[in-house]
Amino acid sequence: MKIDKRNPRHWFYLAAFTVASLFALVLRPLVSRHGPPLVLLYGHKLNGNLMSLYALGDQPACEFLFLTMDPAYQRELRADGMRSVLAFSPAGVRALARARAIVSDHGLHVLSWLPRLGLLRFADVWHGIPFKGWDERDFLVQHTYDEIWVSSALLRRYYVERFGFHEAQVHVTGYGRTDRLVRADEDLAPLRRRLDLPDGRRVMMFAPTWQHGTGTRSIFPFDSPADAFLAMLADVCRAHDTICLFRTHLNSGVGELPLPADVFRCVPQQAWPDSEGLLLLSDLLVCDWSSIAFDFLLLERPTIFLDVPAPFPKGFTLGPEYRFGAVVASVDALADRLARYLAHPEQYAAEHGEQARRIAAAVYDDMADGHAAERYLARLQGLLAS
Q1: Beta bridge pairs of residue 327
Q2: Is residue 85 part of a domain?
Q3: Based on C-alpha coordinates, what's the Rg of the chain?
Q4: Residues 236-275 pLDDT 10s
């Protein structure tokens, strides 16, 4: 779950999780570990790279269980038949006491001290290939992990040279979350029905990144008022028989907006964590500096980047030169490109296909092959056996 430091209930969850983890540490020598080793998956949501591991199902070599501090989300997962446990429940204490490894995609919250004890194996899969810049201070917890799994040799170099990891820690596996995008073999009809997307209508996604501490920054570009920008999107969508998925980041403080139901579907990350399913539905993406662009890259579909100042206080990891599609600097230019690519998507391939392929090769090497999660599993098995 995403911690809101202004929410007293979240502070209670953190305190309860701390107590539960201490109980688990005391119980650890007393708990039986017969059967497949238990691997806990930990992150804000059970999605992305964590979900790619979970989706492999329980293996002879290990059993997967998602650990969460959020009671409401845990009830939601349980209702959907997903194997999960509440961190500060008795079952959560038992799971922590029995676990052999933890795989995270962000951080560990109150468990940040645990890797130093050497009682479990720890691996990190992170949650997106970044434009956002970091330095080694952002990864102090992950520096104590056994392994970090990244998408390519380029990202491995950044982790070692910029983020302070040892070469032996960082391994190129590909990104498990992209396996679905590469295979593109699933039935999307249930998701279309859930979103009330009429058959035959095209779909575009508007996915701006969040403010990153820049409180005055708007997710709507070029100093355009929200209503004017959304009106432009609505006009283009109506002219080209298209639905717009309006996707805000987990950290975006965007309230309710007057979105016309005939052309918009609101799919905030908080309520719709399955980014890959939404991307598979989308024929075109509009974004600024969101890491979702590098997922969409593998679909080889039209992508338009908003040329707005990046909100990142520490600069870039992958810089502006890694924008692989059309880059627009005004509302009018965006409207023009949208109309062009919705009417003639083949023009995008002619204009940007070569550049997109070059960047995909740098960001993924040859690891975008639909088997990244299997490589995660192989590395995990090696950790459990060591």
Answers
A1: 305
A2: yes
A3: 21
A4: 999 999 999 999 876 555 556 778 889 999 998 888 989 9
pLDDT tens digit string along 303-342? 999 999 998 999 999 999 999 999 999 999 999 999 999 9
Tokens of 96: 């922590």
DSSP state of 172: E
> What share of residues in the chain are helix, strand, coil (percent, to 5)?
45, 15, 40
Q: Are residues 197 and 284 in the same domain?
A: yes
CB 71 within 8 A of CB 95: no
Residue 155 to residue 332: CA distance in whole angstroms: 35
d(Cα 203, Cα 264) in Å, to the nearest integer?
A: 10
Looking at the structure, tell me whether residues 30 and 134 fall in a common domain.
yes
Residues 6+ positions from 108 with CB-CB distance below 8 Å: 42, 102, 114, 115, 141
Contact of 185 with 206, CB cutoff 8 Å: no
d(CA 54, CA 373): 9
**CATH code for the domain of 203:** 3.40.50.12580
Determine if the pTM surpasses 0.85: yes
Question: Would you state the structure tokens that stand for residue 68, as one six-digit string?
Answer: 């969460």
Could you give the C-alpha distances from 342 to 320, 325, 328, 348, in angstroms and in order?
24, 14, 16, 10
Tokens of 248: 């805000």
> Measured between alpha carbons, how far is 324 from 353 in angstroms, rounded to an integer?
8
The answer to whether 64 and 176 are in contact (CB under 8 A) is no
> In this structure, which amino acid lies at residue 330?
S
